[in-house]
Each structure stands twice: as structure tokens, then as C-alpha cells.
């Protein structure tokens, strides 16, 4: 066995859970208004898609951009609407404090947000809803511990109801078994299965859980429902590999499992490795650092367009190509 092959004794370092989820949106202004003003997440980074610099990349998170809290978007306005199906993240769920779903239903009524009846899943209460592009999202009530690492942002939503990072993602897969084995390789443990009403097939939902406090669950559901990427779908889900060493050991592990991960790519606020898992979902392995405050003070996160690396030399060209947007602010909302 070569030195680069993981063994039970040498690796990989288990992932603590989800780092971020990246989705596809349509109109960038509408995307900003919904995720900041309606859902109360903070815009912690306003940047560009580094593979398509004519497109914004928005990062919404808790007050400090804590790993495990950031939902990010590529607003590709020229794409059509997508369809959620097999080989995709079908739902992204966020944690909210116990007892806050009454607040959220009233808020959704006030803001015209489409939502469904609450359901019970693995002993927790879940409120399904959709963003303006049709992206399926959920809020899950949890008891937030006093030592929770997330920091609620309270500009639009009170602390008693504020989103506290990810709860889980749901994967729709034609054959869940190989993905389940991969999740075990990544350090998640199977926690059990139950009926999955509302999913494409109605078959059982199986939960895998990491050991971290935020974004620890991955649910897999079998389905042959066809899908298409576009507005309202998830582009990829990133898992935390906090250090370069953790990431390298995980990369070796997924490669030994028969997958083809990319080399490490510098994404400025974290370093990334990408791999298409067995069921077709794009996974990312992302380091914790250097973080969103590496190029902006905490108090000024999201205030300006940040252009990483070599893109700064093209600022004029890039700014001219991007549509003007206004970040929602509480004082402006109050004035309305």
C-alpha cells in the first residue's frame, strides 16, 4: 500500500459538516433583497464568479461569516429555470431556534413567500419554503446551545428567530448506496431511516451525520426524477476540511474510493477541491481559512465589490459589465 493511500489509522480526518452551499439565481437585486431583508442573513461578501467574472457571487451568512453558515449564489440572469431531480441537492435546510416557526410563517405571509405546511422529520419540526427563483429551502427548529459557534445577525430578524447556520442538505440519488459509502468515508455516520413524504419517490430518507455543531446532517433519498440545472437549483455543496492537511487526507480518501478530485484551487477566502460524487452531485472540500475577514474588516463585510487576486487589475472592465445592485439596509427598509 502506498503512503498516499488512506488507512483507518492515518485518515482521512472526518469532516465536521457543511461549509457552504452554492446555488443558481436569476435577478441579482431580487436575490439580495430576499436573502438579506426577508431571511435576515448578512451579505458577508460581494464578489464575482472566479470562473465567469461577468457574474456576481454573493455570500450570505451569519454576522461573522462563520464556516457552516454561508449560502452563496451565482445570479446568472440569462439562464432558464431549473428543475430539481436526481443527482442534485434537492433541499437545503437551516437551523432556527425552537419556537420561532410562528414568527417565520407570519413573516412569510407579510413578504409573500411561498411555504408549505410544517412536517416532522427525525423528531424535528420542519418548515419548507421556496425562494423567489423556486429554490427549495427549509427551516428546522433546534435547541441552540449557549456555546453555539454561530453569531446571529439581527439587522432584520430578532435573535430569537435568526437563522443559525445550516442544518442539512438532502440529496436525490438514483442509487444512494455508493454515496452512502462515500459519506461514511468522509466521516459521517448513518443515523437511521424513515418515510420521506413530499419527496419525489416517497421512499425512505436516510440520514448521515457528522460530529460538528453546524451543518452536520446529509439526508439521501432515492429517486429517478429527472432534473436540469438552472435558476432555483443548487450548483454544489461544500464540506469543511478545516486545514490543508485535513483537505489533503480527504482528497486522497475520495480518490482511493474511485473518484477523480481536482487539484487544490485557491478561492481567496478558502482553498477548494472539487469532486463529482457517484450519484452526480458536485461536492467541494473547503478549508476554514483564511475566511471572509481576510480582505475586509468585520464591520464592513459586503460593503464593496471584492475582486480576488488578478481580477483587481480588471476592476473597471468588470464593474462595467455587472448590473448595479443595492444592498438592503434596515434604515432604508424603515423609511419605506
UniProtKB/TrEMBL annotation:
Name of the protein: Glyoxalase domain protein
PROSITE patterns documented for this protein: VOC
Positions of the UniProt region annotated as Disordered: 188-209, 317-336
Residue ranges constituting the VOC domain according to the UniProt record: 17-142, 165-288
UniProt-listed InterPro entries: Extradiol_RC_dioxygenase, Glyas_Bleomycin-R_OHBP_Dase, Glyas_Fos-R_dOase_dom, VOC_core
Listed Gene3D superfamilies: 2,3-Dihydroxybiphenyl 1,2-Dioxygenase, domain 1
Amino acid at each position: 500500500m502506498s503512503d498516499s493511500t488512506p488507512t483507518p489509522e492515518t485518515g482521512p480526518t472526518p469532516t465536521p459538516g457543511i461549509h457552504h452551499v452554492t446555488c443558481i439565481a436569476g435577478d441579482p437585486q431580487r436575490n439580495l433583497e430576499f436573502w438579506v431583508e426577508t431571511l435576515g442573513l448578512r451579505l458577508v461578501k460581494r464578489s464575482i464568479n472566479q470562473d465567469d467574472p461577468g457574474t456576481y457571487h454573493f455570500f450570505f451568512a451569519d454576522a461573522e461569516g462563520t464556516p457552516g453558515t454561508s449560502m452563496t449564489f451565482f445570479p446568472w440572469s440569462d439562464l432558464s429555470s431549473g428543475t430539481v431531480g436526481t443527482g442534485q441537492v434537492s433541499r437545503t435546510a437551516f437551523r432556527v431556534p425552537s419556537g420561532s416557526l410562528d414568527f417565520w410563517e407570519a413573516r412569510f405571509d407579510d413578504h409573500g413567500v411561498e411555504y408549505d405546511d410544517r412536517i416532522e422529520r427525525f423528531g424535528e419540526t420542519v418548515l419548507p419554503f421556496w425562494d423567489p427563483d423556486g429554490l427549495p429551502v427549509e427551516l428546522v427548529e433546534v435547541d441552540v446551545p449557549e456555546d453555539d459557534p454561530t453569531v446571529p445577525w439581527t439587522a432584520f430578524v430578532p435573535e430569537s428567530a435568526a437563522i443559525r447556520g445550516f442544518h442539512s442538505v438532502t440529496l436525490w440519488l438514483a442509487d444512494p448506496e455508493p454515496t452512502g459509502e462515500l459519506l461514511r468515508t468522509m466521516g459521517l455516520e448513518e443515523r437511521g431511516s424513515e418515510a420521506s413524504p413530499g419527496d419525489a419517490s416517497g421512499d425512505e430518507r436516510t440520514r448521515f451525520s457528522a460530529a460538528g455543531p453546524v451543518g452536520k446532517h446529509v439526508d439521501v433519498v432515492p429517486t429517478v426524477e429527472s432534473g436540469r440545472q438552472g435558476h432555483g437549483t443548487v450548483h454544489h455543496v461544500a464540506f469543511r476540511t478545516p486545514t490543508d492537511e485535513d483537505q489533503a487526507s480527504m482528497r486522497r480518501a475520495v480518490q482511493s474510493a474511485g473518484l477523480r478530485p481536482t487539484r487544490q484551487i485557491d478561492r481567496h477566502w478558502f482553498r477548494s477541491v472539487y469532486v463529482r460524487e457517484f450519484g452526480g452531485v458536485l461536492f467541494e472540500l473547503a478549508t476554514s481559512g483564511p475566511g471572509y475577514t481576510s480582505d475586509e474588516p468585520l464591520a464592513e463585510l459586503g460593503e464593496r465589490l471584492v475582486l480576488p487576486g488578478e481580477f483587481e487589475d480588471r476592476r473597471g472592465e468588470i464593474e462595467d459589465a455587472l448590473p448595479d445592485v443595492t444592498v438592503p439596509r434596515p434604515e432604508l427598509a424603515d423609511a419605506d
